[in-house]
Amino acid sequence: MRRYTRYMPNEIKRIKEEVIKKEKPSKEDYELANSIFQMIKRNLERELRRCGVKAEVIMVGSIAKDTWLKSDKDLDIFVCFSPEVGKEFIKKRGVDIIRRSAPKPYEEHYAEHPYVRAKVKGFEVDIVPCFKVRSPREIISAVDRTPFHTEYILKNMKDYQKDEVRVLKRFLKGIGAYGAEIKIEGFSGYLVELLILEYGTFDNCLKNVSEWRPWKTVIDIEGYYSDPQRALKKFNSPLIVIDPVDPERNAAAAVSLGKMAEFIAASRLFLRRPSLKFFYPPDIRPITSEELKAKLRRRGTDILVIKFKPPQLPPDILWGQLKRSIKGIVKFLGVWDFSVLDYATWSNEKDKAMFMLELERAKLPHMKKHIGPPVTNIVHEERFLNKYLKAIMSGRQAVMAGPRIEDGRWVVYIKRKYDSVKELLKERIQEAGLSKDIALALSKNMEVLVNEEVCKLLSDLELNKALAEFLLKRPRWLMALSDGE
Amino acid sequence: MRRYTRYMPNEIKRIKEEVIKKEKPSKEDYELANSIFQMIKRNLERELRRCGVKAEVIMVGSIAKDTWLKSDKDLDIFVCFSPEVGKEFIKKRGVDIIRRSAPKPYEEHYAEHPYVRAKVKGFEVDIVPCFKVRSPREIISAVDRTPFHTEYILKNMKDYQKDEVRVLKRFLKGIGAYGAEIKIEGFSGYLVELLILEYGTFDNCLKNVSEWRPWKTVIDIEGYYSDPQRALKKFNSPLIVIDPVDPERNAAAAVSLGKMAEFIAASRLFLRRPSLKFFYPPDIRPITSEELKAKLRRRGTDILVIKFKPPQLPPDILWGQLKRSIKGIVKFLGVWDFSVLDYATWSNEKDKAMFMLELERAKLPHMKKHIGPPVTNIVHEERFLNKYLKAIMSGRQAVMAGPRIEDGRWVVYIKRKYDSVKELLKERIQEAGLSKDIALALSKNMEVLVNEEVCKLLSDLELNKALAEFLLKRPRWLMALSDGE
Fold first, then answer.
1. A-B contacts at Cβ under 8 angstroms
2. Are the beta carbons of B365 and A392 separated by less than 8 Å?
3. What is the helix, strand, coil percentage profile of chain A, to 5?
4. Range from B348-357, B380-389, B472-481 carrying the lowest mean pLDDT
């Protein structure tokens, strides 16, 4: 590829080998995974027999496909029931059977059905009920597709590509784009596998990604669409990867424009300047109160943090609401003339959440220019003048200057209702287009901290790192580059 | 007129009578004007005879037309030469003859030709050389048209209308819209006469004006244009009044949109609430330092005054340059992110001038968000990252946060070059699109005053009033209304 004049295949090879060395599970890891699966399978089958219910217990996901990372020990076990038993049966009896045979202690989670999650010897084991259908076109719930994904990869992926998948997964993890959940809006494990199937190797994948164009990229391994335009129209996503087991599905639907763009940029930069730091970015350094104060002084901007206890919701729901709500707040502040330079959301998904904003200024001038009607609009002019002349005559301070005519329109200079962002939010945040549960959470407990008040959060290491990252505004993989190596 | 439910003809009649009482020149005024004219005419004719030059000495303008105000004692005397003598003759010998016969002391002024201005017994006497042409189509210099204007009004205006002209002139003077000079950009005396010819009376004129629409109004007394659309296209002015003596000329070409709009609004308000204060608005009350400081505190905005000695130029040239230059400054400040809430220019046309600006803030945050190229633009991305990553690595403070990707574009937070408007102007006002002579004047002497520093100007009554008016931002006729009567 002509453009990458500095493309260094040997350097990249060396880095890949190092990543594989760290991420490839050992023989012991495999044996352990397998023995856990066999144990759980035995228990499940015993319970199924006891209840007289027919179902097949299979392993799916990255361990089944041999594309897992040593650091990502997710074991996915599916219990495949016959479609004839029906959805209600699965939700009740099916899950009940799983509960009884699952390793204790376990948590219950809810996607389309309930399912069970247990920690076993370092593995996070999900035991999920699904329907065993004959083809992906007949799936009843979304999880029913997963066994077909596992099957497709096992059938089509060459052995050497499994390590390429590992390297690409770790790369995406390093740049913060691995995972299809709402919090990340990035690339799922299955999607990474498809990219390696399409492009063959990690190197070649990055070369191609670095020339991707959002809203114009279609990957269609099985060639279902003769015309990519049709796929672009049908799915209308920044990135489209047709699911080989289901032409009606975009396997990259979860990828946001932002995460796609970061992948593109990181790919290009990695090819120019390969570094292990893309895969293992340095940890965020916590910030001290003095550093925070110095930063604020230097910048001259104002930092605003809204801290609250998040509602108890499944992560995808919570993050959807957090993201929607902060956008609502930014828009709301704009309406009140506060201009937002940057914003971000953080939560530990348990008891702490923050909206972080950096503002041009947290206090506005009291006086605000208000543009009125054109002098030729008789009705509105009358209403305008009646209102403001009356205010002047009554000696109220609402009118600070004017009215006068500018460019043929009436203009008046009035007092702002809110010149402090803190007051505005304390009194009216409920008008800010928040999502339902966030609105409720904020109404119950919310701290609004401005500038130096934020210092008191720094003693909490989690909050501290989130704030430090927010202030830095630099992806960690880029920090690696700019810090020198 | 249905719309003016409060139209009070008797009230208006009373006010008009009062204005006429004040403004109609007395018998003695007329006799004095005439005797001055006769005296100057005699001297001019004697000198013309002595030089053997043929020319006619006539009185033109508002005194000749009997539409003058007692408070506006302008006596216009034209010396009409034969076109055959040529322009050069007029500029030299013609003006020489005038000089020799003019009352001493006199000043010389320059329009298209030089002319002479003298003060005689309270009258400002202009003695202007022109060509006596047979029709307005043959005019050689612009002043040659004036005798035809005088003739047209004398022939077409009914006697009672002359007082209507006086009332309308005084009304326009009161609202600050009387005069075609660049400083005012308003209505000339001749234009006022044409409006009275068109609408008959002052009252009817105001009723019509209050429904004028800028860019859509054509007045064509002689009916030269069968289709007003053609006139609108030809002249492309907010207001078009076809000159009855020259269909190719818009007698309202000098009227700005702003002054037209103020006339419209004032007309409507006067009809609703007639008051002598439209004609004689109260004087501006000077402001004290304490009041200025209190105002600044209340508003939370920042006041900026650029004080300088204006270049010695004829008023129209000076005001043209002042207006162009302040617009240049406002635009320049916008480019540097300083947002201007209001601006104005003041000068005594001699030794003092000011640009006055009210800013949202005179100091900006040091940190500024800078939007870079999209990640898909390979060339620009490389240039962008090279520049900013290098800055970070070299430890320079230019990059305060970022770079990062937002909505698919690179973004970086950098240090502003100028966060203080005062410094910016002191160092770089010459880049602000100033007109030539103003640029020179500012390079020689300029004071930039911010907020409380402005107080030191308040001891100068002229500057004080200009500042007080700028802060109030309310036309004086509207102040009259809002102060109660």
1. 164
2. no
3. 50, 20, 30
4. B472-481
